[in-house]
Amino acid sequence: MTDYLNALVVFANFVFVPALTYGCQLALGSLGVTMIYSVLRFSNFAQGETMAFGTVITIMVTWLLQSWGVSLGFLPTALLALPIGILVTALVLLLTDRYVYRYYRTKRSKSITFVMASLGVMFIMNGVVRLLLGPNDQNFADGERFFLTADAFRAWTGLDEALVIRTSQALTIILAVILVVALFWFLQRTKTGKAMRAYADNENLALLSGINPDRIVRITWIITAALATVAGVLYGLDKGYKPLSYYNLLLPIFAAVIVGGIGKPIGAIVGGFIIAFSEVIVTYAYKKVLTYVLPTDMAPDGLVQLLSTEYKFAVSFVILVIVLLVKPTGLFKGKVL
Amino acid sequence: MTYLVGEGLTGGYGSGPSILNGCNISVDRGEIAVIVGPNGAGKSTAMKSFLGLLNLKEGKVTLDGKDITHLEPPARISEGIAFVPQTENVFVSMTVEENLEMGAFLRDDDFTDTRDQIYDLFPILKEKRFQLAGQLSGGQRQQVAVGRAMMTKPTVLLLDEPTAGVSPIVMDELFDRILEVKSTGMAVLMVEQNARQALEIADRGYVLVMGENKHTGSGAALLADPVVRKSFLGG
Amino acid sequence: MSQRPSNAPLHDNTVRASIAFLVMAGLLILIGVTQSWALALTILNLCIISAIMALGVNIQWGYAGLFNVGIMGFAALGGLATIIISMPPVKEAWQAGGMRVLLALITILATISAALFVHKLFQGKRLHGWLIAVVIIIGVVISRYILDPGVAAIEAVNPASTGYLGGLGLPVVFAWIVGGCLAAGAAWLIGKIALGLRSDYLAIATLGISEILVAVMRNEDWLTRGVKNVTGLPRPVPYELELQQAPWFINLVERLNSGSLAGLNSTDHTAVLQTLVVDSASIFVKLCYTGLFALVLILILQLCVLALDSPWGRMVRAIRDNEVAADAMGKDVTGRHLQIFILGSAVVGIAGAMLATLDGQFTPGSYSPLRFTFLIWVMVIVGGSGNNLGAVLGGFLVWLIWVEAEPVGFWLMDALTSWMGDGSGLRKHLLDSAQYMRVIIMGAVLLLVMRFSPWGLLPEQNR
Q1: Is there a single domain that holds both residue C141 and residue C42?
Q2: Which residue in chain A is spatially nearest to B92 when comparing CA positions?
Q3: Domains held by chain C: number
Q4: Which of B100, B105, B110, B132 should be substituted to probe chain A, the one whose Cβ sees the most A Cβ atoms within 10 Å?
Q5: What is the pTM of this model?
Q6: Is residue A327 included in any domain, yes or no?
Q7: Residue A212 domain flag
């Protein structure tokens, strides 16, 4: 019996909790893409770099705060810097809208033109991010490292294996829940949120009802900035900041958005978790779990890993392909044309 | 002085050719005016000139004696003109109640009274208030669309082919509802394909051909006119 | 953007194109005179390859409005072809694990056929998707079971110099064709899946496939040696060392330089001739490449012109000008788009193979989306979307800017930060980051051209 419990703990420790955390991060990033899609009607390729940019600003402010001796106790100082990161990112996104996208909006250009412009924005941000903080890893996490330590868990349960929850993981889950609840409350309950949904649903009728499109677009960018920055900072706290990994988040994010149904906020969240869990489940080496579960003489020799971690984005891609082949509208019936 | 008047309307969309050639259309409060005519006669265009979507070369539009010829569409909405497009006239992913709320977007005051009045006018909407508008039948959707437009407490309601694509029974019901809307003191101007039925409820009727007034008169008079009957109402 | 409004001004492209290419030539000559001819030729060769890649992308974008964000992957497939075709086979590796690799390949093919068979048999029935999933999982497990020991054995064979299967040992020029075919195959797969849906989906799908292709090349050492790189690819042109010893070449150099060599005593004569021969050999080799590449470029350009003038090309243009109308007239829009997507990708694949040939090595680590996807897009947009000559011009010009932007960026940063003093950490950081300036500049160029000159330098001409 304890063997099974141990196996379960190992699974929870190495698969469930990391996937849950990663899923929250992806969900927040994907929500930004879906919001932009439903209001501005294009797939924003700059989302990954936006996340990186928000993180860079937050890191720089964090370092500044640290140099002043400011800290948040057991929580990372980055939480204090986060609002400033969001603010700066929102400002930058609003500027890109003003000087890049607005022109194509007034011209009513095809969505692919927006996509291409977003590619240009993506590479400018790519350069700016590296200009500010270089291409290398940066660690900016401080405060208490663990929310639940291995010793505490072992002492509590008496098991050999331990479930460890890092502060960054706990923080990710809590913050993501708060943000998602706030976002849905905003969209479902407030006048502005409803106007945003109305604009996404039927642009002409929204105009006829006196909804100001510029205001809707502005608010959408600000929300996207907040989501992207929080997602990026949480990802950075969890796995360390490295600009390239933010570019690599683009594919899982798009996959999550399309799996859930493009333009559907709830779809982006579900999609984020589907992608995150598939990725972690497929790339985890099950040797340790199986050693507990199987009889001793059947214990596996190899790692029992379905796919090496280098190919983790192949998981997103395969899921994306399956969705495109089987149900292009995604799980929640997003827009296809 | 008639409440809403379009005089000598001439113009088209953008810099395109003129679709309207000096046509006159007016409607008073508590009246229904119907524009009928063959395809391409400029019926919808005439209606849109009241909404300010047209580039008018000549003519003027007055509302309650005030010249609104050069007002932009949003300003006209605040002046009390409401428009119900022919298609895509509801927010399909939002509930009936949210649709009405969006209709009142520009209002900062408490609009529950208006909403309740609309629910009295269209009882089915009250029943389905928490359903998504996209899940309603065609006739019900039209009621949502009219209800949404009325949320700004307009004095003029412009309806672009409200009965397009609904069954005759639903059409009769819709016309009943429109009569009730009129009785609230609204000026109703609508474009209709179902000319005969529309003229039956019309206080004023306009038959447009090539952007000009061909026949004008009360609905009953037009229905009685043998020329109109022969040419436009199929005998 | 791919559609030109009817009121857009018509430009006379012949004059524009001639001037533009003359300016290009002038710039290269300037580099030749002020820096070195070898450098000018290196840049020129890469310009031609860039131009071919841009041409391939322009076929997709200009003819069909297809947005390919996976240029990197198709170019890398071309590079892979050079290994498979031109490297000598590694016999020990084949003996160690070749059979297993082949067997695993057969298993994968069998799995795909089985999955398709199940798909046909159970279409519309319950469990349809699950059955296919089961077939695929079983296939993957079996092929992994066969493949893994083979891969381990292959990679154990002399890992420092080989550790992979090698290739077929054929002339490298064949790899250009095979590279095109490989890219076409990948394009077929992606096009089948993503075309006919939202236009953004193709962009996302190509982004995904290119990342995966490059990841495979980076990690499958048995195939590509991964990050250990395959160096010493055979050349389609002579080697510098051979030339330096070939009497005919030495004679040729002597005759060409007889003016400057005359009047030197014999020791000086030999020494000067020696350096001249070394320099000339490197230039000669580069010229050979230039000739070969230019041939390919002209061939592809000519084929594009022929294709566009054919009935097929007329249909393609009709579809592009009004997709809805063409669809309503019963034209197979998605089918046509698939053909165009495959053709364009094949051209990119050819260019990718040529690039690996020119480099003489295949380095999976060097494939970055910045250099291979984004830069090519800048070339297409700057050159003039829809215009083949424009794409070529864009390829030339943007490559030149890209090469020269790094030193300029460094210089600019140096000048801007000179007031900070040499000890300043910020100055050092900014100087280190100067290379990112050119990415920013390129992004800005893309956005500015899209906005203010959407038809690029050479707009498409109405026919």
Answers
A1: no
A2: A201
A3: 2
A4: B105
A5: 0.89
A6: no
A7: yes
Does residue A189 belong to the interface with chain B, where contact is any CB pair within 8 Å?
Answer: no
Clarify whether residues C229 and C262 are in a common domain. Answer: yes
Residue range(s) defining the domain that contains residue A71: 2-256
In-domain check, residue C393: yes
Q: Is the dihedral of CA B131, B132, B138, B143 positive or negative?
A: positive
Of C165, C195, C224, the one marking the end of a domain is: C165
Q: Which residue on chain B is closest to A191 by alpha carbon?
A: B105
Residues A288, A292, A298, A300, Cα dihedral to 10°: 0
Q: How many domains does chain A have?
A: 1
| Interface with B, mutate which of A38, A192, A199, A202 (most B CBs under 10 A) | A202
Which stretches within chain A are classed as H helix?
Answer: 2-11, 17-40, 47-67, 78-96, 102-106, 111-133, 150-157, 167-189, 191-201, 203-208, 213-239, 243-248, 250-260, 265-283, 287-293, 312-326
Q: Is residue C462 in a domain?
A: no
Which of C438, C434, C442 is closest to C413 using CA atoms?
A: C434
Counting one residue from chain A and one from chain C, the pairs whose CB atoms sit within 8 A come to: 136
Nearest-Cα distance to chain A for B152, in Å, is 9
**Domain end call among C150, C165, C180:** C165
Whether residue C265 is found in the same domain as residue C324: yes
A123 contacts in C (CB within 8 Å)? 370, 374, 439-440, 442-443, 446
Which residue range(s) make up the domain with C25?
A: 14-89+166-452
Q: Is the pLDDT of residue C8 over 50?
A: no
What pLDDT, on the 0 to 100 scale, is given for residue B32? 92
Judged against a pLDDT cut of 90, whether residue C267 lies above it is answered with: no
Average pLDDT, chain A: 90
- Region of B90 (left: φ > 0; alpha: ψ -120 to 50; beta: rest) is beta
State residue C461's pLDDT score: 62
Question: C287 and C308 in one domain?
Answer: yes
Query: How many C-alpha atoms does C357 have within 13 Å on its Cβ side?
Result: 34
**pLDDT tens-digit readout, C343-366:** 999 999 999 999 999 998 899 888
Give chain B's domains with CATH numbers: 1-80+156-165+184-235 (3.40.50.300), 88-153 (no CATH)
H or E stretch covering B187: strand B187-191
CATH of the domain at C396: 1.10.3470
Pick from C449, C320, C367: which is nearest to C72 by CA?
C367
| Site from A67, A116, A317, A327 to mutate, C interface, most C CB atoms within 10 angstroms | A116
State the DSSP code for B13. Answer: S
Q: With respect to residue C458, please indicate whether it lies within any of the assigned structural domains.
A: no
Residues 6+ positions from B37 with CB-CB distance below 8 Å: B43, B206, B207, B208, B209, B214, B232
Q: Is residue C103 part of a domain?
A: yes
Q: Does A210 touch chain B (CB under 8 A)?
A: yes
Q: Following DSSP, what letter does each residue of A277-317 receive, concatenated?
A: HHHHHHHSB-HHHHHHHS-GGG--SS--BSS-GGGHHHHHH
Q: Listing from the earlier edge strand, what are the strands of the sheet with B212-217?
A: B81-84, B156-160, B187-191, B31-36, B204-209, B212-217
The complex scores an ipTM of 0.89
Q: Name every residue whose Cβ is closer than 8 Å to that of residue B87 and which is 6 or more positions away in sequence.
A: B164
Q: Answer yes or no: do C303 and C442 share one domain.
A: yes
Closest residue in C to A104 (Cα) is: C451
Q: State how far the alpha carbon of C201 is from the alpha carbons of A78, B145, B205, C243, C322, in Å.
A: 36, 34, 51, 51, 20
